[in-house]
Write a structure and sequence with these properties.
Layout (H helix, E strand, L loop, with lengths): L5 H11 L4 H11 L2 H5 L3 H8 L11 H16 L3 E4 L7 H4 L7 E6 L3 H6 L3 E5 L6 H15 L6 E4 L5 H12 L3 E4 L13 H9 L4 E4 L9 H14 L2 E4 L7 H11 L3 E4 L10 H8 L4 E2 L3 H7 L13 H6 L11 H13 L3 E2 H8 L3 H13 L3 E3 L4 E4 L5
Parallel strand pairs: 3-4, 3-7, 4-5, 5-6, 7-8, 8-9
Antiparallel strand pairs: 1-2, 2-6, 10-12, 11-12
Helix pairs in contact: 1-5, 8-9, 11-12, 16-18, 17-18
Length: 388
């Protein structure tokens, strides 16, 4: 088996020992290359793995044939396989104790440009994102986009915080990297296919994974994916999380890799903020309380942030057909109520303002048409961040 292709051999090792990358790394360091592993005879394999190991039986021609077919499949799909000894492999990830020996990559720019041209910042958190969490996620990305050294945003393409982080990055003109819990040929959840397509076609952005093609989104795969999110970036930001969750694991992994960790504080009685508050209390994470200080502390320089637009002035500047003179004061009352209580419903606005339902429904409709507020399918209202 002399003259084996090193790239094929690394792909095979990545497939065999994907959940234990330290084994692949140890074999390659001990023997000098991945090819040397597949050049061992039965006695050599027994000496390396021991007489009772089942791993030795997975090293052989069949594994190489499968890896060769895998590489041809991703080539046809417009993807790449980056080995750990490739100059394009991200240095920050390589410095971790458990980096994958190979990464599948799909993007419009060369991987070396994506991983080395900008600093990387990971933003993670719960799938059950609150209006407060969504607003703070968007504002965090906006602050990063206005820094002296704008970063690329890394996340996991999941529901909630991940999707908000990727979409905010694309909206702010920042590159974004999505780390998948599946093969590079899948998108999970499927409703994020549009975001994935935007990422692949956007400059400096990419989809990556260490899973072979046809790998489904099983629960253990999300846990393995999180170490890559943490390892890629100089800083991980936890937006919202319960005490247990993937975002908490990613933040703890980032801390173990000696990277900066920040968490968004929240009310002590809010289940969505309990994880963040725990990390802050345990001094694993710094509290995210001032965007300029946050941007500066992670080495991105100064953030040039504009002052928040005054809501009342925004309403005063509306055209007359959207600003009934006898109701301007009540419109301002409703808008300020929404600003102070993100995600408030029309019924709750009525209770806080004392206004009747039909009037609140009518005026929130005007505010929404004017782009001052947003409203979801459950009629929960929040301020449109484009106007603040």
């Amino acid at each position: 088996m002399a003259g084996l292709d090193e790239r094929i051999c690394i792909c095979a090792l990545n497939s065999i020992f994907g959940f234990k990358p330290q084994i692949s790394l140890s074999l390659m360091r001990t023997l000098g290359s991945a090819a040397a592993v597949f050049e061992l005879d039965k006695d050599g394999l027994r000496e390396i793995f021991g007489p009772y190991s089942t791993d030795a039986g997975r090293i052989g021609p069949q594994a190489l044939d499968k890896a060769e077919a895998e590489l041809e499949k991703i080539r046809r799909a417009g993807a790449l396989f980056i080995t750990i000894d490739d100059p394009a492999y991200p240095e920050a990830l390589k410095s971790c104790p458990d980096p994958p020996v190979g990464l599948y990559y799909k993007g419009s720019d060369p991987p070396g440009d994506v991983f080395s041209c900008r600093p990387l910042v990971s933003i993670v958190g719960t799938r059950d994102l609150t209006p407060y969490g969504k607003e703070m996620c968007i504002r965090t990305v906006q602050a990063l986009s206005k820094s002296s050294s704008p970063p690329a945003i890394v996340s996991g393409l999941a529901l909630g915080v991940d999707a908000a982080a990727h979409w905010s990055a694309l909206s702010c003109g920042l590159p974004t990297i999505a780390v998948l819990p599946t093969g590079i040929d899948m998108v999970y959840p499927s409703q994020h296919t549009y975001i994935a397509d935007r990422i692949v076609s956007s400059k400096g952005s990419a989809l990556i994974t260490d899973y072979p093609t046809d790998t489904p989104p099983l629960r253990p795969h999300f846990l393995r994916r999180n170490r890559i999110i943490a390892g890629l970036s100089r800083c991980t930001v936890l937006i919202e999380s319960k005490v247990k969750g993937g975002g908490m694991m990613t933040a703890r992994l980032a801390y173990s890799y000696e990277r900066d960790v920040f968490a968004l504080p929240g009310r002590i009685d809010d289940i969505h903020s309990q994880g963040c508050n725990v990390l802050i209390r345990q001094k694993i994470a710094e509290p995210l309380v001032e965007f300029p200080d946050f941007v500066k502390s992670i080495g991105l320089g100064k953030a040039t942030l504009t002052e928040t637009t005054d809501l009342e002035s925004c309403i005063d500047s509306l055209p007359e057909n959207l600003r009934p003179q006898d109701k301007v004061r009540k419109m301002k009352m409703i808008a300020n109520c929404i600003r102070s209580d993100r995600g408030i419903s029309i019924q709750e606005i009525c209770g806080k303002t004392g206004l009747d339902y039909s009037l609140v429904s009518s005026l929130t409709g005007i505010l929404r048409a004017a782009g001052i507020i947003d409203m979801d399918l459950l009629q929960r209202c929040s301020i449109n961040l484009k106007n603040t």
